[in-house]
């Protein structure tokens, strides 16, 4: 990442790492060799990256790319030459001879290309493991070919025999949240077969090693247990607090932090915030001063983090996300803090630098900012044809830049490393000038095989844009070099101080943001718009900036003492024009004619301008010296305004003037409609009185020299120098200034008073307002006296870090460990300000939290890697019921892969051993947005596939209407994105793509995932010409059910021993969707499935949300599918980052029940039935699937109203719901049927997400998300009410209706709060039988596993393991938990 040169230097130093090394010795050797190439800060960042395993994804991506070659057998390292492979060094020459007959391979942005390679030569890709003998051998072979100039050398890391060891990750958070026990949802099944994984060593409480003690004294097990319980309870009591005790908890916690020594303050904040439920009682008696209650410029409780002034968004904190910003313009409207620069992947901020590279350029040499821009360079160099790059340093730089851009890319040509043009500047001392020699040295080092004279010399083909650069500079009129423009606004000369330029630019960014926000809010700027085009289409944008026009020093014409003379006017009759231009010049000279020509050309493009012409002759007047001037006067006197305008335009051209001088009759230039005879009579008249009056006026009133040019605009006089350019663009700029200041106001007054146009002069003598920019000042004030302050080390460069935080918020839980690690990595000037909330009415933090992050790799005493970064929760209180949640980077899709405990219901009083959980990073998420270029709208229902050349369809997805969003599950590697075969490919074609790894116009859309950062792409599609009127989601849609949904059969079982089975017709299968989290609800889910299978004759396919299923359930479900002969699939969907996030697990699960129905299932699934996990089915569900919904997209059962004693709990009978429903039923979400075809057709999913986005911002809204949302949308997305018999619930339905119930739902009872398990046994007679039947099957399955473990030594750990794991260890011996 630092530079390709340093990479290759590192490779050279580590060609063969000989000898045996343990993990630590190997690591230290590598770090030592890297230290020779990196600064101390860079070395720390390398250690941090290795600790994060940040490059593991890169290694894995190269492995995947190598597998597509595929590697030749028996080779630990090999060459690939245009698709032909060998590991025989002798064969390389043979393959090179025939290489040109085969197409060149595709090279990725992350590829390592040797800097001395010949870009025109064949490409040799070496796949090898760095540091191994085979690598050294083949590397030397290909290196010799590079020096001959015969190959382009690309190196990709490759392991022939991967160890298969799991890589433990960090960079994520773990929450142990205290769960409400209002309704008991805990399974009573005893956990069996728990293994401690050797973590008894963690069982330490106040210095007592209880794991060791229990081993030494097993007979004292119970006594030791009681001792531990006493010790834990004595230190971690969670005594309830009264309301008055909570009010100042935020201030009291802040006081505890600030009272600590500065060196310990972050650790104190970390301990208090991450363990707040047990620490609250220690802070409530802390004295706090009134100084905390002052304002910090933010709302109380808000948090913010600034590094070197750049705002870091804590809401999307992701240790891997350095550059993957959202690109949706709606992000501009998100609430944020004063002075924050929003990080959005759009070209909002454009910096153009115009400079002469041969001048002193201290400004350009210091261009190393932390701000993010789109930067453009314009080099102004000699445009003379006989000057080449061997003579002129400026020309040499331009040609070198063009050469590097063509041979590598423009990014490489610009980056500040030792082989590009920015480095050429950096080699020049401050105050010095660039020389040809500096350019030559850089080229010779980077491209040793190239003849420098062929690039820089007279015959160079790399001269593009040299003349255009100077022409652009002259055309813009921006003044002396260097020039810097932000979004087209030139900086003032005093703003170009290199030390102040970044500050000035940041201020401009903040000023411009409000302009963008307004445009987004009004709908003028949308996500699919090009921001640069939007900027360029603003009314105040002009193609040229003239300092004379913009000058604040202005002279106005005083006509009070002047005799009115005859002025030649050019305008249409009867229209009031607020801008008056007088053009003064000798129209018989080229300079005067050009000024006149540009003025008329501008007038033709504007309805605001009228034009007056004053001839200022250079010589004494005669017929020969006034041909054009007389013709102008005659046309104005005798012709209509339009004919005169067209004729004068012709006269102002140089070829016309030349012809007149040669004696060509002026009648030859007449335009259509002219009265030629009348014109000639005036033109050939003997008198020049009108021209003499013009000359006198120029001399006496305007004080002009003979022939001098001028432009007078609404009375403002601009005298032009002899060679000064004033063109059509300058007239446009002048018009804009007049209109913005006085022109429109005067026009309105003229219209109000009814003055005729030919009776007035529009003369404005008030100076104009600022047109191009406004100055706003934003300042943030922090109380400097009351903050955690950590000073930087003296004499070293440091990062300025400012954090604002309420210490009793989730932000504090995440921020404290992050700042602690940052402090260890780099030199910081750190200030943490406490932004507290007052008058709290409840405990602000109800969870324990750990952020897994280490500054460098950790080793054990024997030199091996430590078991891996992990979250440990020590000395947890015993009484609460906990639920475990992971907070991972946005692009991670993780699942729990190994734990026997119920992580949704961790009750430590009942735990005897270590509670350990391992999670696996199953997929990296590829996200995107898709739009139809013709309509500008997302192509709803369009499907994409992701795969490789050999396997084109591995996963697929459906495009939403919301922002055109789609997501695909992938792993590190190179992938090809295509339209899915079927209607998507028949109707659409890919038009362009952005953010991918292939050119925008490439047919193959290649995306390389080689890191853990979020990846978001943008795809534009277009309907094929013959499909323009067709729709994807028509009622006749038939989509071939192949692709990802078929590939999911690795999770699909049909019950027999056959590996393949003929596909059932979709009408013959009942698709049932359900969700569950926690062992109790998974137990209910298995019983619900059995009840369905016992009563339904039609084949059934279950769809389960995989996101929250336990390893136990996923391990058992294949056995159950085989036993009972059903199909199933596990589906996943990552909650989109742009959709309002829920933080409570139960609410997230509710969201998945309703928000993503249109994208969770393939288009081939016409109907889906949702059945709650805690339901018992007593009928054939085919009847529900075939129920006529009468055009509604879904059908729900209304809440029962027959149990009268529950009337007081029926919230929908009064207040908001009674008014909103207007007599309609309120429906329960435990059972519903969805017509997915109709659901997609009317965009129901998009409407539901849109309504959710608006309502969910209010924490008091959507309290029962999964059923409040569809009931709230009943007017926009209609609900068909199912007969009451389809769902019976004891809480709301009377006993008499139970006998006709087709399903029984175990609703919570707000009156009795009866535990769910107890209610199931009491209410449903068959429930216990079903439960016992499932348990007998589980016993048989476990017996089979035990047999395998005993007799074969094999252990089954589940399915689908990949190479990345994060680990959590929760250790408990009845009294204590460590996670």
Automatic annotation (TrEMBL):
Pathway: Protein modification; protein glycosylation. This is UDP-glucose ceramide glucosyltransferase-like 1. Coiled coil: none annotated. Recognizes glycoproteins with minor folding defects. Reglucosylates single N-glycans near the misfolded part of the protein, thus providing quality control for protein folding in the endoplasmic reticulum. Reglucosylated proteins are recognized by calreticulin for recycling to the endoplasmic reticulum and refolding or degradation. Its cofactor is Ca(2+). GO terms for molecular function: UDP-glucose:glycoprotein glucosyltransferase activity; unfolded protein binding. It catalyses: N(4)-(alpha-D-Man-(1->2)-alpha-D-Man-(1->2)-alpha-D-Man-(1->3)-[alpha-D-Man-(1->2)-alpha-D-Man-(1->3)-[alpha-D-Man-(1->2)-alpha-D-Man-(1->6)]-alpha-D-Man-(1->6)]-beta-D-Man-(1->4)-beta-D-GlcNAc-(1->4)-beta-D-GlcNAc)-L-asparaginyl-[protein] (N-glucan mannose isomer 9A1,2,3B1,2,3) + UDP-alpha-D-glucose = N(4)-(alpha-D-Glc-(1->3)-alpha-D-Man-(1->2)-alpha-D-Man-(1->2)-alpha-D-Man-(1->3)-[alpha-D-Man-(1->2)-alpha-D-Man-(1->3)-[alpha-D-Man-(1->2)-alpha-D-Man-(1->6)]-alpha-D-Man-(1->6)]-beta-D-Man-(1->4)-beta-D-GlcNAc-(1->4)-beta-D-GlcNAc)-L-asparaginyl-[protein] + UDP + H(+). It comes from Amphiprion ocellaris. Its main location: endoplasmic reticulum. Keywords: Endoplasmic reticulum, Glycoprotein, Glycosyltransferase, Signal, Transferase. Belongs to the glycosyltransferase 8 family. GO terms for cellular component: endoplasmic reticulum lumen.
